[in-house]
Amino acid sequence: MNPEHKHVDWAQRYRDEQMPWDRGKAHASLQASLNSGQLAPPREGATCLVPGCGRGHDALALAEAGWKVTGVDLVADLGTDFGERIAALGGEFIVGDALNSKRGAFDLVWEHTFLCAIAPYQRKAWSEMVRGSVRPGGRFGALIFPGDKPVDLGGPPWGYDVERLQVWLGPDFELELTEVVDPEVEPRSWKQTFALFRRAQDVGK
Ligand SMILES: C[S@@+](CC[C@H](N)C(=O)[O-])C[C@H]1O[C@@H](n2cnc3c(N)ncnc32)[C@H](O)[C@@H]1O
């Protein structure tokens, strides 16, 4: 079998509490960016999509900072009350395939260990999902991980870096900022980079 097509039973991982990716809280880089106002909603009601949101720690932090958040995950039973909590903050939790469902003109798409979790053959669908979801002038934010994992080690998590991410997003996404994450603040087995991109205003015109 092609190792890229290895099946991951995500629902079982949640049932077994086998989620090494789960921080139990929003990622420190995202939280710092929200706290400083760097990733503040541009207006009241600004929308944010979090594909592969898992237990939704990041989605909730974004919602608490004022974003109207849509979290999407394949797994219905995440073992938490994320659905109720995000709804109470004006957002929603959609159960489904993030690569083939929700599209729209979001002001922000936030990516955290979703891209590295899906198989490399799904990256085209991931790219189409992001490109079909970020409005012109909107933003894309990512916690890039595992940044220095050699491709031949396979996955998940599948290694990638900011240069490859830029290719998958396309030239209309301009890199605004990258910050390597301090492993003492957020320990993980491979390099992490916080990155923000801005999509051109005149895309598609
Ligand atoms: C490594 S976890 C990351 C979860 C979350 N982003 C976090 O940082 O805690 C990957 C998540 O993607 C979800 N997932 C995998 N494939 C998916 C798909 N095609 N559509 C939606 N969710 C998917 C899994 O159920 C899992 O919750």
Shape descriptor? globular
What low-confidence regions span 5 or more consecutive residues with pLDDT below 50?
none
Range of strand content? 15-25%
Task: Give the name of the CATH architecture.
Answer: 3-Layer(aba) Sandwich
Report the structural category: alpha/beta
> Which ligands appear in the coordinates?
S-adenosylmethionine
CATH superfamily: Vaccinia Virus protein VP39
- The number of E-state strands comes to 7
Number of domains: 1
Instruction: Please trace the helix and strand order, writing H or E for each element.
Output: HHEHEHEEHEHEE
**Termini separation (Å)?**
43 Å
**Rg for CA atoms:** 16 Å
- Please bin the fraction of helical residues: 10-25%
Identify the CATH class: Alpha Beta
What do the pLDDT scores average to? 94
* Count of separate DSSP helical elements: 6
Name the strands of the widest sheet in spatial order.
Answer: 3-2-1-4-5-7-6
